[in-house]
Specification:
About 35% of the residues lie in helices and about 30% in strands. By secondary structure, it is α+β, with helices and mostly antiparallel strands. The chain has two domains: about 1-130, Sandwich (Tumour Suppressor Smad4), CATH 2.60.200.20; about 135-220, no CATH class. Strands 2-1-12-11-8-9 form a six-stranded antiparallel sheet, with helices on one face. Strand 1 and strand 2 form a beta hairpin. Helix 1 (about 135-150) runs antiparallel to helix 2 and helix 3 (about 180-200) packs antiparallel against helix 4.
Length: about 220
């Protein structure tokens, strides 16, 4: 299955399943990579000939072969894989499904937001099939849920994590938005969020910034 993976930084990559996201064996690099000859039908020990497709960063807290992404009858399978195929050390979260059990697996039909714990708040990415039109209303609904979580929390770590997840969703919406006005609002929001995260502004300041932009987006979307 051909999919697109978009990081919270806004960078995206198109690739074919199956693949891993995690620390490359023998390295501190956290990357998107494949095992050459991977049949995509079973869990694998974290060994073999690896083809690195894109390096995300360096982080020893991320497990080797942390997450595996497979295809099953038109659906995406997100697997908390780890070095032996029995699960990662620090877990994997999938938006709408929560934190997977160690070695757990979840099937998603359209798109998923995946978070991997790291030395930063998280490594977060949105993944969806290229052949399938992304369900716009579901993305908006998910962002609205994040907004409610954001409003109800004062945890600095959670504020940053939610902001990164919203940032990833904004990237997906922008690629499907035909209205120049909405696209402009989203680009403005993404730029300000990028600046805020890059310069590590206080989480409560970032929270106010996100809420302000989401209010503008709702007004534009629903005419209120």
């Amino acid at each position: 299955m051909k999919v697109r993976l978009v990081y919270s930084s806004g960078k995206g990559v198109a690739l074919e399943t199956p693949f891993f996201v995690g620390r490359v064996p023998g390295s501190e690099d956290v990357a998107v990579f494949k095992v050459k000859g991977d049949p995509g039908t079973e869990r694998l020990p974290c060994s073999g000939n690896f083809e690195v497709l894109d390096v995300i960063g360096k982080d020893l807290k991320v497990s080797r072969c942390h997450v595996r992404v497979l295809e099953d009858e038109g659906s995406l399978l997100i697997v908390d894989h780890g070095p032996l195929g029995k699960g990662s050390t620090n877990g994997t979260s999938v938006g709408g499904y929560g934190t997977l059990t160690k070695g757990g697996i979840v099937k998603v039909r359209d798109f998923a937001v995946v978070s991997i714990p790291s030395s930063e708040p998280s490594i977060t990415f949105v993944i969806y099939p290229l052949e399938t039109e992304v369900p716009y209303t579901r993305i908006i609904d998910r962002i609205y849920m994040f907004r409610k979580e954001l409003t109800s929390t004062s945890s600095p770590t959670k504020i940053i994590k939610i902001t990164e997840e919203i940032r990833s969703y904004m990237e997906v919406i922008l690629k499907h938005e035909e209205s120049e006005r909405l696209a402009g609002l989203i680009e403005e929001m993404m730029k300000e969020l990028d600046d805020a995260l890059t310069h590590k502004l206080p989480p409560m300041t970032i929270k106010v910034l996100v809420e302000k932009h989401l209010d503008k987006l709702w007004n534009a979307l629903f005419g209120i």
